[in-house]
Write a sequence for this structure.
């Protein structure tokens, strides 16, 4: 092991959040990514799905009948299929609530209340419960009841317009790569749940956590918004009016592909030495490297201590020597899909290495949860299955 090297994620169960139990009623990306982060760090996450499974189980591509996106977003969890519109199903939920620490849901506002499972009802049954309500617009305001997906928050927070402005301020907005309107708020949700757990440890008090996709995406757009509020200029206008000396940031096209250079101040002076001339604009750098290979340019600039990177397609990402050395692509053994390769957990801990497990098959843990946690015998479980209470 190299000096300072910490172990990467392996298959198994993490110890960081051992003893924390989460009832996960969420679906699609936002909620499942939140609870996947917690599950990866060792929380026992029970994913409660309708008997037919949540919608993301149908998202392509499929691997031996199992959804690749679902298997990533729901790894390390247990699956319980439960009909929450059935009184017996609701009774099972409240029994599970007795031993739970956290409830996470991202239904359309009002759905949990209609089921009799809103925060008010759950807090009466378990006052110290931490209830994370994830939604597009939060629990109040004129838009609170609107349905939402990631691109809605990306659109309203300025992300699409900002991304389009990087290309052409007079052109159309551009949806950013990946669903940041889900994934970024999910990280805020996971962080907030951990903070609430610490607060409860000190005080014994649970609480309601209100996580809005739009609010989180505005926070993630903080610097451009701060700049606008400070100088009245849109982001592209601030970039247009910036000093152009002493900074080289941008994409550059080499003979066989693209690369990105991010240099300022002394780094630009070193870049000048490499290209053998002055730099009045990015065009000077582009002329120097246009007939060169990406690898050669990257090597020259790294040698000169200038920040640079090849711009990769995904097949290049997963094969990069640094990615391989850090173990950032891991393999998990799924009960139905078989060996599945996925991005690993991105943070390393010196005392408590992360251990990952596969996503569950639909209802895989029904019997285990009902038998071991709630004490139901095989006959009762069979009866619940026959009545459609569980799958």
């Amino acid at each position: 092991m190299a000096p300072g090297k910490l172990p990467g994620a392996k298959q198994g169960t993490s110890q960081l959040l051992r003893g924390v139990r989460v009832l996960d009623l969420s679906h699609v990306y936002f909620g499942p990514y939140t609870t996947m982060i917690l599950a990866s760090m060792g929380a026992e996450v029970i994913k409660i799905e309708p008997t037919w499974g949540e919608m993301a189980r149908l998202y392509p591509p499929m691997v031996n009948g199992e959804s690749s996106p679902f298997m990533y977003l729901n790894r390390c969890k247990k699956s319980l299929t439960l009909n929450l519109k059935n009184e017996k199903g609701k009774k099972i939920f409240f029994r599970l609530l007795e031993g739970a620490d956290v409830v996470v849901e991202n239904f359309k506002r009002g759905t949990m209340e209609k089921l009799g499972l809103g925060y008010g009802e759950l807090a009466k049954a378990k006052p110290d419960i931490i209830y994370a309500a994830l939604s597009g617009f939060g629990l109040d305001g004129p838009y609170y009841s609107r349905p939402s997906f990631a691109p809605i928050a990306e659109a309203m927070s300025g992300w699409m317009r900002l991304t389009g402005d990087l290309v052409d301020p007079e052109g159309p907005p551009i949806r950013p790569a990946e669903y940041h309107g889900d994934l970024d708020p999910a990280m805020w949700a996971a962080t907030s749940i951990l903070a609430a757990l610490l607060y409860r440890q000190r005080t014994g008090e649970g609480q309601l956590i209100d996580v809005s996709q739009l609010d989180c995406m505005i926070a993630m757009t903080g610097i451009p918004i701060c700049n606008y509020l400070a100088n009245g200029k849109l982001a592209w206008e601030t970039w247009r009016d910036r000093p152009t000396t002493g900074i080289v940031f941008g994409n550059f096209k080499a003979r066989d592909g693209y690369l990105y250079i991010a240099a300022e101040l002394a780094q630009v002076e070193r870049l000048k030495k490499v290209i053998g001339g002055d730099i009045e604009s990015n065009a000077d750098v582009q002329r120097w490297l246009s007939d060169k290979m990406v690898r050669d340019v990257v090597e020259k600039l790294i040698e000169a201590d200038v920040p640079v990177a090849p711009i990769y397609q995904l097949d290049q990402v997963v094969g990069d020597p640094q990615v391989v050395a850090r173990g950032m692509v891991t393999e998990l053994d799924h009960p139905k899909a078989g060996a599945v390769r996925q991005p690993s957990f991105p943070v390393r801990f010196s005392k408590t290495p992360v251990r990952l497990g596969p996503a569950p098959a639909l209802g895989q843990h029904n019997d285990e949860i009902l038998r071991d946690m709630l004490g139901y015998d095989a006959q009762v479980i069979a009866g619940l299955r026959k009545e459609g209470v569980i799958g």
